[in-house]
Amino acid sequence: MDDSKSKSSKDVDIYRDTPVRLLGYANEVGESFRAKIGPRWVLATYGLSTAYVIADTIDKSIKTYNKSKVNGDQIEKTAYAATDAFIWQMLASVLVPGFTINRACALSNYMLSKNVNLKASRREWLVICIGICVIPFIIKPIDHSMDKLMDNTLRKLYTLE
Predict the structure, then answer these.
(1) Quick one: which of 24, 19, 17, 13 has its CA closest to 48?
(2) How far apart are CA 136 and CA 119, in angstroms?
(3) Is 104 exposed, middle or buried (CB count within 10 Å of its CB: 0-12, 13-18, 19+)?
(4) Do residues 52 and 122 make contact, with C-beta atoms less than 8 angstroms apart?
(5) Contact present, 27 and 46 (Cβ < 8 Å)
(6) How many Å apart are CA 155 and CA 161, to the nearest integer?
(7) How far apart are CA 63 and CA 78, in angstroms?
(8) Cβ(26)–Cβ(33) under 8 Å?
(9) How far apart (Å, rounded) are the C-alpha atoms in residues 2 and 22?
(10) pTM
């Protein structure tokens, strides 16, 4: 087997470089369907997204702990990695996109409610479709924005080797 292929497969972060990343966006789907499923189920989708965030945080913590065994600075580096992963994921996967989709759906619902010829059930489905369609367009800009935010705040306080 080619060494470059085996190395690249080891470098793949399943929580950020694979479709598993989409679990972090479960709450956006929930926000899109809010009018049909109700707030209790939307809250459940936030639970799924938060479980994804915790899984990624644990994964980054374990990897950092194992890498820093030789230097003896495991605790400090592991704490930084856990904090960084948790804050980044909560912002990039849960809070900012959830708010964005919630507001996109609310605005769509408001605008569509002005059309007196549109039945409420059709308006709800249109709002759901708009919310779902917005999700792919916000993922990369939010991820990049959160990288910049973290690079200019928390990550300036610490350095990982």
Answers:
(1) 24
(2) 27
(3) buried
(4) no
(5) yes
(6) 12
(7) 8
(8) no
(9) 30
(10) 0.84
How far apart CA 85 and CA 11 sit, in angstroms, is 17
For residues 83 and 155, the answer to whether their CB atoms sit within 8 Å is no
Tokens of 12: 């793949």
Helix and strand numbers (H, E) in the chain are 7, 0
Which pLDDT tens digit goes with each residue over 59-109? 999 998 988 777 677 888 899 999 999 999 999 999 999 999 999 999 999
Phi, psi (deg, nearest 5) at residue 152: -95, 0
Query: What secondary structure letter does DSSP report for 118?
Result: S
Q: Where are the beta strands (DSSP E) in the chain?
A: none
How far apart are the C-alpha atoms of 82 and 146, rounded to whole Å? 16
Burial class of residue 127 in the structure, from the number of CB atoms within 10 Å of its CB (0-12 exposed, 13-18 middle, 19+ buried): buried
Closest to 146 (Cα-Cα) out of 99, 61, 84, 98 = 84
Long-range Cβ pairs for the range 71-79 (8 Å, 24+): 71/161, 77/160
Predicted confidence (pLDDT) per residue in 40-64, tens digit? 999 999 999 999 999 999 999 999 8
